[in-house]
Amino acid sequence: MKWRCTWCGKPHESNDPPCDSCGHNEFEEAVVRQEEFETVDTGTQYMWVCANCGRQHMKNNPPCSRCGGHDLEKTEDAFSDVDRDLEVPSWLEVAKPYAPIIVGFALIVALFATGIVSPSIIPGIGTPSPPDAPGEGSEAAGIDLEAAEDEVHERLEAERNADESRSYDDGLAAYAEYTNRANVAMEYDDASPDSVDGSDFGVECRNELVGANLPIPGSIDDYDDEGALAEAVAEAVVTSERLTDPELESEGLDLHVGPDGALYGVYLTC
Question: Is the sign of the CA dihedral 214, 218, 221, 227 positive or negative?
Fold first, then answer.
């Protein structure tokens, strides 16, 4: 059986006051309870708090180790500091310091998702962006160049046999656009665009790739509409034997108009 001081609660092996901690002259028996396993009830725990600065002490042993005060008050230790340490912050409190980073990341994702910013600006992601080139690549003299490109494919398909049909490949078209704009930029601006190949545009048949700069007669002002321009471009394709190999399965095309109205076309097939 153990004994404890009735003033400070310090346990002692025998009922032999005074307490060697606080000097109190009265002990009491410690209570032992039997439950599922044997435990020893050490009773209420006390602390001695400095009346001047609030510093807690394990013993009634003035002066205060912080301020030197001699008035220590006996206080029951409720272990409130343990409860405080066990409080778990909410996810909002954890995330608050990182809010600017989270908002910035969300904004970047939104810009990419909406197409406002192309993923190709990030090295190693997406296809290379076409170089800047003088002139027009989408519309000139009232003619929709992209619509003309689609009509060229339709005209070529109409002239082919069923076993010679070719699909229109967006990767080939993107590669053709890059090559066409690079040619125009070098001719008019003496530019030096970066070198690329079919793999940069996801072209899987690049080892069998065949291409040509199309000789399109006249200038954009010589054509009344998309149909007239498409007819001239399709004629430039079919007159080249290497572009009409029946073993070829896909194609891509780009048209561009220079600042002086000259027509530039690049056709790729594989």
Answer: negative
CA angle at 200 for the pair 194 and 201, rounded to the nearest 5°: 120
Compute CA 49 distance to the chain's CA centroid, rounded to the nearest angstrom.
54
**120: exposed, middle or buried (C-beta count within 10 Å: 0-12, 13-18, 19+)?**
middle
Q: Per the structure block, which two tokens stand in for 39?
A: 């435990």
Find, among 29, 35, 24, the residue nearest to 14 by Cα: 29
Q: Give pTM, 2 decimals.
A: 0.57
| Cβ–Cβ under 8 Å, residues 134 and 185 | yes
Q: Taking the domains of the chain in order of start, what are their residue ranges? A: 3-86, 91-117, 139-269
Average pLDDT over residues 86-106: 71
Question: For residue 86, what are the CA distances in angstroms to 44, 47, 144, 261?
Answer: 21, 21, 69, 76
Query: Is 3.40.630 the CATH classification of the domain at 139-269?
Result: no
Per-residue tokens: 152: 């060229």
Q: In the structure encoding, which two tokens stand for residue 251, read together? A: 């194609």
Interval 124-134: pLDDT, tens: 556 899 999 99
**Those residues with Cβ within 8 angstroms of residue 158's Cβ, 6 or more apart along the chain or in another chain:** none
Distance CA 176, CA 180 (A): 6
